[in-house]
Amino acid sequence: MFHKTTSWITFDKALQSVSVYKTFIAEKPSAAEIKICGLGFFELYLNGNRVGNDLFTPAWTDYCSFDKSTLTYPSQDETSHRAYYLKYNLQNALVKGNNTLCVVLGNGFYRQTRRVAEGRLVYSEQLRLIFELSYTDGGRRFVVSSDPSCLYSANFIKENNIFYGEKHDYENRLPDYVHIPENARFCEKTEDYPYLMEEQTCPPDCITDIFPCTQVLKKGGMRIFRVPEEISGRAVIRAGKGNVRVTYFGELGADGMPDYNSAGADQIQEDEFIAPPSGALLFPRFTWHAFRYFSVEGNCDVLRAEVIRTNVRRTVEFHCSSPVLNWLFNAYCRTQTNNFHGSVPSDCPHRERLGYTGDGQLAAETAMLFFDADKLYRKWIDDILDCQDKKSGHIQHTAPFYGGGGGPGGWGCAVVVVPYRHYCRYGDAAVLKKSFPNMRKWVESMRGFCENGLVVREYAGGWCLGEWCTPDKPVLPESFVNTYYLIKSLSYMKEICGVLNEDFTPYGALMRESLAAFERAFYDEKNGSFCGGAQGADAFALSLGLGDARTRENLIGKYDKLGAFDTGMFGTEVLCGVLASLNEYELLFKLLASEKYPSFGYEMAAGATTIWEDWKGEGSHDHPMFGASAKYLVTVFAGIDDTKNGVIVAPKTVKGINGLFCSLQSKRGLISVRYEKRGTKICFELESEQNAVFEYGGETHGFSGRFYAEYPINVG
Q: Are 252 and 186 in contact (CB under 8 A)?
């Protein structure tokens, strides 16, 4: 991987950021390439020019073991660790004569000394770097490597924290990627990296969009600006001499002043700059912020807001006559991409920024449908496998593991659900094969949490959460939800065993035992409901094939009367899925399009541009988990299915949608459906780049290319 003369180097641990320099002479340089890894994040420059446009590299992983005694959630699990190196082609970047390589390092997730919400999370007290630049000069190959001869110095970045922000001092030190400071010191050789190290193949973070900023308030020396929607990224300003402060937040309070609650009032996102007399372009280097508003103090001009996220392409377009469904589609897309960083689908892009496995497994299917996220989820699956305890098989509640809690079922099941969803979308059985041993270990860990077939606990001192983020306090027993996800995961494993030609027999008895225990503990024979029908309980049961006609009637009757959700993060997705499976499309539409609290329409009416963590909007305003139900806009109302038996387009038309357009750029090519109600007819215009089947009104038509059909409105 790296030449034996190449070594890891480190620096004064008192410095939160350093610039590392290496000079060399080339006479007739031609082909050149560099392999590099910096822990935490790095920026690479050659002869003063930035190499690449990626940010926050390398992608975040569970880098190495660290002291877990400070964690607020107890864990002594022995997990796996890895780090990524990146390759850059330096063709035509080298010059004849002197060449200067400069690497700017910052903390990233590797060294977070300030945050206390989940504990003090410090993988190392010192930043680390390794690189190897190889080039051809006059027909000979030369290698320039990291070693103790490299020089380093402090730079303009005085503080940088992924959760809080940065402090830059340009008064005495402007960015300089060519000239080595006189006070530069030699680097120190440090021990080799003892864990898995491999080339980064997942997509990097980068600037994906630019938004204008509108000033909405000026009070004293403070100006407040707004961007059109909640974003993840940074403001870019140009400042003259003096101090400048930029503070980010999600909303304005009733008094028109900053409201920090949704992003964490005890964790203010803020950047401070000391600008030089000549002025400078200012923005943070090693963190992003999540915001719709930001304030500036000091002598500066606000230029723009830059959206930063993992670079994945959206594959779905959708709009229809329902304003709420349109809002749900757009809000989910914004929320999910705001939470793609380091190829990790996080729970929120500000307060926690963690790859919570519960949130992530819920949204995985929708995210893989809406985005070209194959490589992103391959990487996150590795994170999930890495976070598993090598001894017990327990799955941590965040991946990469960074503290935080959840439950053994709804969170831990990510080790089964996410690889399964990846296979269903992208069809690569190799991902299942790699993950299957970890799935088996997790099932065995769940056996240890069971009593008489029910999942009733987690390890000592750990959380055992069930449903979460309900409108009111969760009332479903934790054992109900955790056992549900054990059973559901075993049903997926049965399919996986079929794909991999593995024996499901060792797990069949547990599945049958848990199903029987679930029904015995939670079913009321008198009324045919589970847990009194509370918070979608009947939907959970029906999803497992339990219950009877009364259970279905109770579920449908309840939510038809309620006209809104009473479910949490798990129940909402389960409820919508069951209604779709029961062909209750009108009721599914009624709930998704409702403007009655609690609903997505309620969030839309409140002015939200992203999906909230809870129905009341008291937590984060940028959480993707509830957006999992957005997939039904594509799979039900547009009726596009390209996952199993070729391309099928079977739209489910409902009274509340008068017109709809949806397109999907899938592995089978572009598929689109458009329909419109015109008088007494409904007219369809379809297109597929591959052979497809159209199903509607009891008829089936094969087509390729463009297809047109019309039916009486009452047929569908």
A: no
Contact by Cβ (8 Å): 347, 339: yes
Any idea which residue has 């190799």 for tokens? 430
CB 240 within 8 A of CB 274: no
Q: Which residue in 624, 622, 504 sits closest to 263, CA to CA?
A: 622
User: How many whole angstroms separate alpha carbon 416 and alpha carbon 363?
Assistant: 14
**Residues 397/358, Cβ–Cβ less than 8 Å:** yes
Per-residue pLDDT, 119: 65
Whole-angstrom distance, CA of residue 399 vs CA of residue 453: 28
Asked if domains 207-310 and 346-622 share a fold, the reply is: no
**Residue range 387-406: mean pLDDT, rounded:** 92
Task: In whole angstroms, give the CA distance from residue 368 to residue 636.
Answer: 16
Report the pLDDT value the prediction gives residue 128, as an integer from 0 to 100: 97
- Cβ atoms of 187 and 179 within 8 Å: the answer is no
Fold category of 207-310 in CATH: Jelly Rolls (2.60.120)
pLDDT of residue 114: 81
Estimate to the nearest angstrom the gap between the alpha carbon of 71 and the chain centroid. Answer: 22
Q: How far is residue 120 from each of residues 61, 160, 257, 357, 519, measured CA to CA in Å?
A: 17, 15, 31, 21, 43
As a whole number, the mean pLDDT across the chain is 95
DSSP assigned state of 636 = I
Residue of 544, 629, 541 lying closest to 591 (CA atoms): 629
SS3 210: strand
Give residue limits of the domains in the chain: 9-202, 207-310, 346-622, 659-715
Tokens of 438: 């970890």
Banded pLDDT at 371 (limits 50, 70, 90) = very high
Quick count: other Cβ atoms within 10 Å of Cβ 1? 12
Strand 647-649 to 659-666 pairing: unpaired
Beta bridge partners of 160: 166
CB 549 within 8 A of CB 565: no
pTM above 0.85, yes or no: yes
- d(CA 192, CA 471) in angstroms, rounded, equals 50
Q: Does the domain made of 9-202 have the CATH classification 2.60.120.260? A: yes
Q: What is the largest CA-CA distance in the chain?
A: 88
How many angstroms separate the CA atoms of 691 and 237, rounded? 52
Q: What's the CA gap between 374 and 230, in Å, rounded? A: 25
Whole-number Cα distances in Å, 333 to 367, 376, 631, 651: 8, 16, 11, 22
